[in-house]
Amino acid sequence: MRGLLRAAFAVGGLTAAVKLVALLKDSLVAAQFGNGAALDAFLLALVVPTFLISVAAGTLPAALTPAYIAQREHRGAASATLLAGAVLRQSYRWLLALSGLAAVASALFAWIPGAQLHAETRAILPMLALVLAPFTLLQGVCSAWSGLLAAEGAYSASAFAPIAQPLGVALAIALVPHPTVWTMVAGLLVGTLAQAAWLAWALRRRGLSIRGIAMAHVPHDERAALTDALARVRVQYLPAVAGAILMSATTLVDQTMAAWLPVGSVSALGYGTKVSSVLMTVGAMALSTTLLPHLSALVARAEWTALRELERRLRWLLLGTTIPVTIVLVLVSTPIVQLLFERGAFSTVETATVSRVQAAYLLQVPGHLLGILYVRLISALQANRLLTIGSAINLVVNIGLNVVFMRQYGVAGIALSTAAVYAVSCVYLAVVAHRRLRMAEVESRRVEAHTSPTPVSHTPEAPCASAA
């Protein structure tokens, strides 16, 4: 437990540094662009790429890490490395295809039926979508590489590398005399390229190839085992992708429905997520990055008692820390927005709107972070199909509550709906995770009972004979 917490705090600290740089970048963006039409276009151009990266590359560790660690436990490090290389090679192909899909889909946002988009937003959105196509490929590769580094225990490298993106945007805005939205695009692409270079170097240091491995180059005696391991990864990956599509669709739905509200609502929704995003990203990275390898190792070794005790202690630790922090931040939401954003083109009118959105978004923090614990436990137990069912429930609840709350609270109602969705999700995940854990424990004991040697006699020589 102590080793896990030390690793989690280290990852959390590095992630916090990344988010602080991101907040600095957001402050510069707010002063330069406010809630303008150009910023709306930039944010809308990133909705689909972010969505596709989340569902395609972000879910890869949930499928790969348990299989990778089981392969390493039972067949050795060389066999696990072959599995990782084969998975990476396959992932590059569909990431390239997704880049083109993201560009086309993002351009279509300019013609959302009923959207109250500014003429400038509609004019530049298609070109932004095309120029940002490489971002989808680069960020997807970074997500895949980060997951592999985390499985190897290299938490620091995967946690700190994302600082390159906000740093690139911040430097571009600060150094260019008259920055435009294209300045942000250039900074984002350069920063993402730097992130990929850092992760590639970290992988090479650990003897892992970034090129991937073709099955034709796998030793003949390893092919059967590798084929079985790849099949296990695919079985877990598909439901993880389906679940992520449904869960990430809530963000896509929120952004789309915000476009139905008055001009500037999409930007207000984006600004309102910044503080809650810091808390959730720091907490989620600390938990997700360190928990999945640790839980997967406990499952691979069938250490059920230790697994239950770890879950219980982490549950109360998360509730005891996130609830008080959330209450305090909700109470001081307006001063936070004033401090971070109210300058230049960002006026007191924007502060009033964004502070309400931010307060509502902060309510999701406890449910979101506690849910991460159970998501990782379910993935470690290789039961990702349960996440698909939960994500479908979340999407339905989110759409329904958006419609209800938007009418009464405007754009802040979308944030309030998100908080309610995470509360419902956390309850579902806790219930199914405990149920799946009991089933895995029963199955493990049944297999152990059938494979244990049966003593042939009660003589002192029997144990030696049995061992022989």
Indicate the topology:
Blueprint: H1 2-33, H2 37-56, H3 60-75, H4 77-107, H5 119-131, H6 133-151, H7 155-160, H8 164-175, H9 181-205, H10 220-258, H11 265-272, H12 274-300, H13 304-331, H14 333-341, H15 348-362, H16 365-380, H17 385-409, H18 411-451, H19 462-467
Helix pairs in contact: 1-8, 1-12, 2-4, 2-5, 2-6, 2-10, 3-4, 3-6, 3-10, 3-12, 4-5, 4-6, 4-10, 6-9, 8-9, 10-17, 10-18, 11-15, 11-18, 12-16, 13-15, 13-16, 14-15, 15-18, 16-18, 17-18
Characterise this structure.
The chain has helices at residues 2-33, 37-56, 60-75, 77-107, 119-131, 133-151, 155-160, 164-175, 181-205, 220-258, 265-272, 274-300, 304-331, 333-341, 348-362, 365-380, 385-409, 411-451, 462-467. With 468 residues, it is mainly α. It has one domain (2-445). Helix 17 (385-409) runs antiparallel to helix 18 (411-451).
